[in-house]
């Protein structure tokens, strides 16, 4: 498996070979993490962006959205770079987030809970957002509720969630993804817009 090209590993993974993905991640994890770390210069945040990058890669590969022009690692770095930009953009003030944001950024709505509140009004609004999100979570299956709470309310990384729940990283990523898809549907059905 280790001698196979990136393109072949991707093709195998898209056909259901989970080991091919593990080989692909292991092959490029050091270079990709180093790339992220030098842009952020924060090891904890770099770890989270690294996990988010591979979550997005997994989603895009499963959806057949990998562009074979050029090398896999360059494609992966572009995804990481965009996530880094998104992270800093989402930390800016006066951010407005609606249900459509779920389509491009898997954690954006929940960043509202992480933003520092400047005054008592902001704190009250943040508290209301948290209550609304917790209410929506009740419509999800229990296993999806658990990973969402661990990821966005407790701030655990994907690796920590995997360790805590005794699941593989792939299962954890998949469960978070499906939970977010279901949350988006709930928000759309109820015309919910979360704003601060």
TrEMBL record:
<dbReference type="InterPro" id="IPR013324">
    <property type="entry name" value="RNA_pol_sigma_r3/r4-like"/>
</dbReference>
<feature type="domain" description="RNA polymerase sigma-70 region 2">
    <location>
        <begin position="24"/>
        <end position="92"/>
    </location>
</feature>
<dbReference type="GO" id="GO:0003677">
    <property type="term" value="F:DNA binding"/>
</dbReference>
<dbReference type="Pfam" id="PF08281">
    <property type="entry name" value="Sigma70_r4_2"/>
</dbReference>
<dbReference type="GO" id="GO:0016987">
    <property type="term" value="F:sigma factor activity"/>
</dbReference>
<dbReference type="InterPro" id="IPR036388">
    <property type="entry name" value="WH-like_DNA-bd_sf"/>
</dbReference>
<dbReference type="Pfam" id="PF04542">
    <property type="entry name" value="Sigma70_r2"/>
</dbReference>
<dbReference type="InterPro" id="IPR007627">
    <property type="entry name" value="RNA_pol_sigma70_r2"/>
</dbReference>
<comment type="similarity">
    <text>Belongs to the sigma-70 factor family. ECF subfamily.</text>
</comment>
<dbReference type="InterPro" id="IPR014284">
    <property type="entry name" value="RNA_pol_sigma-70_dom"/>
</dbReference>
<dbReference type="InterPro" id="IPR013249">
    <property type="entry name" value="RNA_pol_sigma70_r4_t2"/>
</dbReference>
<dbReference type="InterPro" id="IPR039425">
    <property type="entry name" value="RNA_pol_sigma-70-like"/>
</dbReference>
<keyword id="KW-0804">Transcription</keyword>
<dbReference type="InterPro" id="IPR013325">
    <property type="entry name" value="RNA_pol_sigma_r2"/>
</dbReference>
<keyword id="KW-0805">Transcription regulation</keyword>
<feature type="domain" description="RNA polymerase sigma factor 70 region 4 type 2">
    <location>
        <begin position="131"/>
        <end position="171"/>
    </location>
</feature>
<protein>
    <submittedName>
        <fullName>RNA polymerase, sigma subunit, ECF family</fullName>
    </submittedName>
</protein>
<keyword id="KW-0731">Sigma factor</keyword>
<keyword id="KW-0238">DNA-binding</keyword>
<dbReference type="GO" id="GO:0006352">
    <property type="term" value="P:DNA-templated transcription initiation"/>
</dbReference>
